[in-house]
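User: Could you go from structure to sequence for me? I need the amino acid at each position, not a summary. Structure tokens:
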């Protein structure tokens, strides 16, 4: 990339959740629902002495993308590590449910979800888990009508139950800085030991769960540079392609077959995983 191109590039990662939504929607169409001025906050955090945030860490933006109705759901990784509680997850699930209802009424509303999240908010435990399950169900419902695009760019990554939500999206877009996994490095080390996964080894972390590796192993669909214009372009392209012939979660048998080839008696390496998963998958 030449010097001028670098100067012209706008980092998507460095944008806030609200700014990311603005960049993805067509110019001038951004309209926020349940905005911070409505003060819809978690009723549980304050009881535990934790400062709340007026939007509970989730931005819901309506507008258009490529001239078609769209909703962008941005998770703010700066608040509680992007973790999902009762209110924040309900905002996402409810928006997706309304988008599906729009489609049943003939309004082709699409959805884009910005995943910067560590998963469930531990302070809200089962309430958050139940709401994440509602998000997953709502994605599966909506994707019957319109593509549901997931984006994980960085720096938080996408973990826990929300990594499952990312996995059931029609398309998943990642950058090199992204990370995607059911359990985070420290959790894996805690439960399985440092010999299984060294949470201090950044090369190992990105080698196994980083955006480029997830793309190479077909656990993500699109790999894009950290550039706001490039991210919007690939979102538009994915939406124009429509629903894929088979979403990732509809190819379970193929993924299980590849998983069975990963050696269970030793810590996997990035090269091993890439070699196995790059063979492809059958439904």
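Assistant: Here is the amino acid at each position, in order:
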């Amino acid at each position: 990339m030449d010097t001028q191109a670098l100067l012209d590039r706008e980092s998507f990662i460095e944008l806030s959740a609200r700014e990311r939504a603005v960049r993805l929607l067509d110019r001038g169409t951004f309209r926020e629902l349940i905005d911070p001025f409505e003060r819809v906050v978690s009723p549980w955090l304050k009881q535990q002495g934790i400062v709340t945030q007026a939007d509970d860490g989730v931005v819901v933006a309506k507008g258009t993308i490529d001239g078609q109705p769209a909703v962008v759901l941005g998770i703010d990784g700066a608040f509680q590590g992007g973790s999902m509680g009762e209110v924040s997850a309900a905002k996402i699930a409810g928006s997706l449910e309304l988008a599906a209802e729009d489609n049943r009424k003939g309004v082709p509303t699409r959805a884009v979800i910005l995943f910067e999240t560590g998963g469930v908010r531990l302070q809200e435990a089962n309430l958050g888990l139940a709401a994440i399950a509602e998000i997953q169900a709502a994605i599966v419902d909506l994707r019957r009508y319109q593509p549901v695009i997931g984006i994980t760019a960085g720096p938080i990554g996408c973990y826990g139950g929300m990594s499952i939500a990312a996995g059931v999206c029609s398309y998943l877009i990642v950058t090199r800085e992204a990370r995607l996994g059911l359990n985070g490095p420290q959790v894996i080390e805690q439960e399985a030991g440092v010999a299984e996964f060294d949470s201090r080894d950044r090369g190992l972390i990105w080698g196994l769960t980083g955006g480029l590796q997830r793309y190479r192993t077909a656990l993500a669909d699109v790999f894009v540079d950290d550039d706001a214009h490039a991210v919007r372009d690939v979102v538009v392209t994915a939406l124009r392609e429509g629903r894929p012939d088979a979403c990732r979660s509809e190819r379970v048998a193929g993924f299980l077959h590849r998983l069975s080839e990963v050696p269970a008696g030793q810590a996997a390496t990035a090269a091993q995983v890439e070699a196995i998963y790059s063979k492809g998958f059958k439904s």
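One structural detail worth keeping in mind: Strands lie at 31-33, 58-65, 68-75, 110-114, 148-152, 158-159, 171-174, 180-181, 222-223.
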